[in-house]
What we know:
heterodimer; A: mainly alpha; B: MetI-like fold; 2 domains; flat
Amino acid sequence: xxxxxxxxxxxxxLERRRRVQSAATASLxxxxxxxxxxxxxxxxxxxxxxxxLVAVIAYVVTKGLxxxxxxxxxxSTVPEGVPGGxxxxxxxxxxxxxxxxxxxxxxxxxxxxLFLAESEGRLAAAVRFVADVMTGMPSITVGIFGYIAIVLTxxxxxxxxxxxxxxxxxLPIVTRAAETAIRGVPVTVSEAGFALGARRxxxxxxxxxxxxxxxxxxxxxxxxxxxxxxxxxxLFTIFGSQYLEWNPTQPMDAxxxxxxxxxxxxxxxxxxxxxxxxxxxxxxxxxxxxxxRLLAAWLRRERA
Amino acid sequence: MTTATVTGTGGRRVAGRRRSVLSDRAYRGGLAxxxxxxxxxxxxxxxxxxxxxxxxxxxxxxSWIFQxxxxxxxNHFGLLPAILGTLETTAIAMVLAVPIGLGTALSLAYLIxxxxxxxxxxxxxxxxxxPSVVYGLWGLIALAPIWRSxxxxxxxxxxxxxxxxxxxxSGNGLLLAxxxxxxxxxxxxxxxxxxxxxxVPVEQVEGAMALGATRWQTLRKVVLRDARTGILGAFTLAxxxxxxxxxxxxxxxxxxPYLAHSLKSTAVTIPALIVNSFGEATGxxxxxxxxxxxxxxxxxxxxxSVARLLVRRTARTGVASVAVA
Lengths: 304, 325
C-alpha cells in the first residue's frame, strides 16, 4: 500500500489526476454549500412573503367579523353618535354601479374581443397594445377622466359617473379576456359553420361565442372583481351619500368608498364599520375570483 | 364579384348571397366600429385631461413641475415634493419586492413540494386581487402604531448612521407607505415571475442537472437567465402599480407637501396630493391638479408600455394575466 502511494506521488500523471480530483471535490463542496445557502435564502424569502399577506387577511377577518351584525347589512348609515346603522346604502351603490358598468362593458368588450380575435392587422395590434396599457393605468387618472367626462358635463356627481369610470377600468380586461377565449376556439369549428353557408354574424353568435363562453365569463367575473374593489375612480365621481339611493343619476355610496372615508375617522365605531366593509369587499372579490375559476373549470368539463 | 355569372332560376340564391355578403360586411363594420369607439374613448381620456391641465401650463409654464414649493394659497404649485415622494415610496417597495418576490417565485416554481404548487400559486393570484383600500386600512390602523413604537426606533438605532432615519418616529410616512406598497405589489411580482420561471423548458433544467450543476447553479444560470425578460416585465408592471397607487398610500403617508429629509418623515405622492386637494381646489389650483394627473398619466403610459413589451415576449395569456395585471 505504502509503495503504491509513493509511486503515485512520483508518477506525474497520477499526481495530476489526484490534484484534479481533490480540486473537483473541493469545488463540489463549495458549490453544494453555495447552493444550500442560496436555496435557504429563497425559502426565507417565501417565509417573509407569507407573513404580511397572511397577516392582512387575518387582521381584516378578526376586525371585520365583529362588525357584521344583521343591522350592518340591512340598515343605512346613521349619523355619528346614533347606535346601530349599517352600510346597506353602500352595498346598494356598489350593486348599482357594478351592474351598470358590467351591462355597458360586456357587450362592448366582447365585440372588441371578437374583432381582435379575427384580425391580425396593424389596427388590431395597436388596439391590443392600448388595451394592455390601459389595464395598468393609475386608477386615479381614470377617476379624473370620469369627473371631466360625466361630472363636469352633467353638472352633478352621480352613480352613473362612477359606473363610467369603473367601466373604463373593466373594458380592457373584458376585451382581452374575450379575445383570448375566442382565439381558443378551434378554426375548424367556425369553418364548419361557414361550410354550412352560415353568415359570419351567425357563426359568431351561434358557434364561436357559445364555445368561448367559459373563458368570456371568467374574464367578466375577474373584471367585475377588479371593478368593484376600485376606490380612486369613485372618489371623484360618486360623492357619497348617507341615504339609500337606487337611482344612478344621484350621488351614491359604495363599499370601497366607505372603507376609505371611514378609516381615517376619529370615532371607533366608524372605523369598525370600515373594517366590516373591508371584510365584505375582500369576501366579494375572493368569491368572484374563485367562482370564476370554478365556473370555468366546470363549464370546460361539461363540454369535454 | 362572381355572382354575375349566375343566371336564370338562380336569381333568388343570388339575392340571398348578396344579402349574406352585405350582412358579413355589416358584421365586420359593426365590430370595427366598436373597436374604433374604444380607441376614441382612450383618446378622449388623454385629451380631456390635457385640456383641463392646459390653463396651469399656460399660466405657470412647464417649470412648476420641478419646483419644490407647494403652497396653493400663495400660488406656488411646485410638484417636486410629490414626484420625489412617488419615486421614493416606489423605490422602497421595489427594493423589498424584488429579492423577496424573486425568492418566493423560485420557491413556488421549483422548491416546494409539487403537490403544493398549484394551490399556493392560485393563492398568490387571489391576493393580487385584494383591493388596495384594504391594504391602506390595514396599514393605517394596524401597522402605523407598530411602526411608530417598534420598527422606526429599531431602524434608527441600527441604521441611524446613514442619516436616512433622522427625525421623530411618526408611524405614518415614506417608510410605512413604501412597506404597504411592497405588500401590495408582492403578489403581482410573484405571480408573473413564477409564471415565466415555470415555463422554462424542462429539458434545459434537466440538461444542466445532468452536467453536474447544483440546484442553485441550475436556477441561476439556466432558469433565471432564460426568464430574465419576463422577470423584468414583472418588475416593471409592479413598479407601475406602485407608482399609481392612490388610496393605500394616501391613508398612510401623512400628506405633507414638503421635501422629505428622512425615510420617517411624512410626505406626499402625486396621487395622494390630487385626492387630498381636489375638493378645495379652484382655478389655477385645480388646473395644476389636472396637470399633476397628466404627469401621472404620462408616467403610467411609459412604464406600462415598457412592461407590456417585455411581458409580451413571454406570451402570458388567459385568466392569470388579467387577474394580476
